[in-house]
Specification:
The chain is of the alpha+beta class. The protein has one domain. About 50% of the residues lie in helices and about 15% in strands. The chain contains six helices and eight strands, in the order E-H-H-E-E-E-E-H-E-E-H-H-E-H. The strands form two sheets. Strands 2-5-1-6-7-8 form a six-stranded antiparallel beta sheet. A two-stranded antiparallel ribbon has the order 3-4. Strand 3 and strand 4 form a beta hairpin. Helix 3 crosses helix 4 and helix 4 runs antiparallel to helix 5. The protein is globular, with a radius of gyration of 18 Å.
């Protein structure tokens, strides 16, 4: 069984188009509703998952006095290529339902852009990550070897034409901040709206 750690990015447009009916989620309300729907579909398809714990939301529940994460993370557990195909189809429906949504697989010190990849390429990614996990479990390498293994994984992914992103790059910081800023503006509007009502 392998873990696929995904970051689910909302579309800035979906935040702007929100009804702002919820003072906690603001413009992320519909986005979080879609995450809940994705979790239900994953459960129905027998794709195990867990939500990444965040100060604002823990397993999808609100935490009083906080704001939700703008880019929630979900870890899916895949035990076969058939389950990987099922997950791919769920993610494809989720991404396609709102223009601008993104899915990125988080691994080590980089992220893999998977928003528009094909089913075949997603299965290739599953195979690569499965082989890496199997290799890691067979030989617990010392720290120096771990660096070599990460470099090798990066080279394999690049050779297979995956788009790798440095999550700490200025470009990614800017993109993440743009989503965060839009979400915070919407939350402020929703809270002001609630106060006036």
């Amino acid at each position: 069984m392998i873990k696929i750690h995904l970051a689910a990015w909302p579309s800035i447009q979906e935040i702007r188009d929100s009804s702002l009916e919820d003072a906690y989620f603001g413009g992320l309300k519909e986005f979080y509703d879609s995450i809940e729907e994705l979790k239900v579909k994953a459960t129905n398809a027998q794709v195990p998952f867990e939500m990444y714990m965040d100060m604002g939301v823990y397993h999808g529940r609100r935490a009083f006095g906080m704001v939700p994460p703008t880019i929630p993370e979900i870890i899916f557990f895949l035990s076969s290529s058939g389950i990987a195909v099922g997950l791919y189809k769920l993610l494809r429906l989720w991404v396609d339902s709102k223009n601008g949504r993104k899915i990125r697989v988080k691994t080590g010190d980089f992220e893999i852009e998977t928003t528009q990849i094909s089913e075949k390429k997603f299965l290739k990614l599953y195979d690569i990550l499965y082989a890496k996990q199997k290799s890691d479990s067979e030989a617990s390498p010392p720290k120096e070897m771990d660096k070599v293994a990460k470099k090798k994984l990066k080279q394999i992914l690049l050779s297979e034409d995956f788009t790798l992103l440095d999550p700490d790059s200025k470009e990614q910081d800017h993109e993440r901040f743009a989503v965060y800023l839009e979400a915070m503006k919407s939350i402020d509007k929703a809270r002001n709206k609630e106060i006036k009502d």
